[in-house]
Records
---
Amino acid sequence: QVQLVESGGGLVQAGASLRLSCTASGRTFSSYTMGWFRQAPGKERAYVGTISRSGGTAAYADSVKGRFTISRDNAKNTVYLQMNSLKPEDTAVYYCAATRRWTMRKDDYDYWGQGTQVTISS
């Protein structure tokens, strides 16, 4: 069992930056691929990005590529989502998730955090 807790959300203006954190319980964090997803009001949960177990490989949705960066610190059981040049359309609840596969499909993720709200004003 893995428990995930996100933090770092908030309200910022367009063009600003935010860094989200997701801390996992347990001693097997490094065995999980970690993903970030987001859900805007009235929309389905959408893929944001994925980072490999070692942190050596990351992948991103086209909508955030070049603006968002995922990293992880396995010693701290934490994965990060650095978000730069934020836009109003980035407004959503952001979730981290864990899986033992390399995948971008939300249905393949086994554990989810509770989410953190990110709101971008224009």
---
Amino acid sequence: QVQLVESGGGLVQAGGSLRISCAASGRTFSSYVMGWFRQAPGKGRKFVAAISWSGGNTDYADSVKGRFTISRDNAKNTVYLQMNSLKSEDTAVYYCAAGRIFGKSRDDYVYWGQGTRVTVSS
């Protein structure tokens, strides 16, 4: 069982930066693929980024490539999402997730956090 708690969301101006974090409980954090998804108002939850258990492999949605960076610190049981050059369309609730498959589908992930809201003002 893994419990995930996101933090760091807030209000930021377009063009600005924000780093959100996800702290995981449990001693097996380093064995999980970690992902970030987001859900904009009135829309479905969509893949943003994923990182392998070692941190050696990452993947991104085309919409955030070059602007967002996912990273993890297994010693701190934490995964991060650094978001730069933010746009109004990045406004969403951001969820972190843990799973065994390095994928982009929600079905690839087993455990989910409660989400942290990011609002980008234009």
---
Amino acid sequence: QVQLMESGGGSVQAGGSLRLSCVVSGYTWSSGSCVGWFRQAPGQEREGVATIDSDGNPSYADSAKGRFTISKDNAENTVDLQLSSLKPEDTAMYYCAADLCWRLVQGAEEVRDWGQGTQVTVSS
């Protein structure tokens, strides 16, 4: 059974940084598999932020490019998301997700395994 546990959220001012971490257990990093981060603001749909595949190749949403960095640590079984140059519009619940890469690319409705989420709040 796949288990995902996020941590690292908090409240920061605009321009600040946070590092989110997802502990991944019970998941097989086979070819074509990914772990990613999504976010959901109040009243909005859950959207993809970044994914990383079994070979460590990252992919980013346009809103994340140049500001966020996703990475994986095989020894620690973690996937981290470094958030930099944060903006108020980045305020959301951030969720870790694990599934086949094509499912993460298709969108939240296709993803089968989720963590509980960690809140990020950015004030202006």
